[in-house]
Amino acid sequence: MRKTTLYLTVLLLSLLAQNLMGQEEYEQQVADLKAQKERIVQQEKEALKLEVKDINQRMKRGALTEEEANTLKAEVAKKRALNIENRVAIIDNQILLIERNGENVLTLKETDSIDNEHITFGIHIDGKRAFSFKERRWKEIKFDRRTYTDFVLAVGLNNAIIEGQSLDDSPYKVAGSRFLELGIQWRTRVFRNTNWLRLHYGFSFQFNGLKPDGNRIFVQDGDQTTLEEFEFELDKSKLRMDNLVFPVHFEFGPSRFRKTEKSIRYSIQNQVRFGIGGYGGFNLGTRQKLKYSRDGEQVKDKFKRDYNTSDLIYGLSAYAGFDGMLLYAKYDLNPIFKDAAVEQRNISLGLRFDL
Length: 355
What we know:
Blueprint: H1 2-60, H2 66-101, E1 108-114, E2 118-125, E3 128-136, E4 147-162, E5 178-189, E6 197-210, E7 216-221, E8 224-229, E9 234-252, E10 256-259, E11 264-267, E12 272-294, E13 297-304, E14 312-322, E15 325-332, E16 344-354
Antiparallel strand pairs: 1-2, 2-3, 4-5, 4-16, 5-6, 6-9, 7-8, 9-12, 10-11, 12-13, 12-14, 14-15, 15-16
Helix pairs in contact: 1-2
């Protein structure tokens, strides 16, 4: 009998303790939710301050008039007030659910938290976090983007203008002499409120090839480089000059203007454009490639020498076209071979693609 009485006493005390602990847990949940209401108000106020700050900065830059800025401020203030009202209402409903259902309440809620730099989103099921992720908040969108980056690819025909001769008398094959250019260029709008003039600048690798006609090769003799007959029958003879240059162009042409509450953009897609400018740089290396037959065997020779080519490269260039496809021409003002008895200057014509 005593054991039964003791057992019932312990059981009743245990149930009473669990009830008290459960009651404390529910009261704590309600207290936490009420504290969340205060944090919600603070979060929305901080968010409003950041939005108003952004609007003021845009007005200082001249992107918004004072009237437009005041209108936007009123809109964001109204939005934040509604956010507070709706989010607080959600918390009030959660409190009512807990008070009504106790531990039997089932919740599926989406929560978020905002600090000065981040916003966190998550899903909580039965009060436990199922998943969440954090992303940067208030990263300012560049309102007026003035500079863009393009990858430049150009290919075409290459040749040389020789002193005292016309291009028709060139000793280099028209179809066999080619050039390739690869580079990165930046395009910046020159004026603040119009895009009719842009500045292009960057760097490019130029590969200029010259293929002599006939059965001739380039021969370096002291400070002179000349074309001479080769002793074997040539299948291929080509001189290639590799340059690193830094082009600068002024580009002209119309553009489409687009303005939203968050950005200003000038688009040159599907627009006519042309540019004129020049380039300067230096020669990275020169090499000659020969393919020929000797005693019935195919021979391939590659010679990497300077061949008296100019170390400094500089010239004029221009392009014109539609969108990203352009007709492209460049002309070296420096001679191909320094100290040559007869000066030659490289000239190229082809297609350029701004990608």
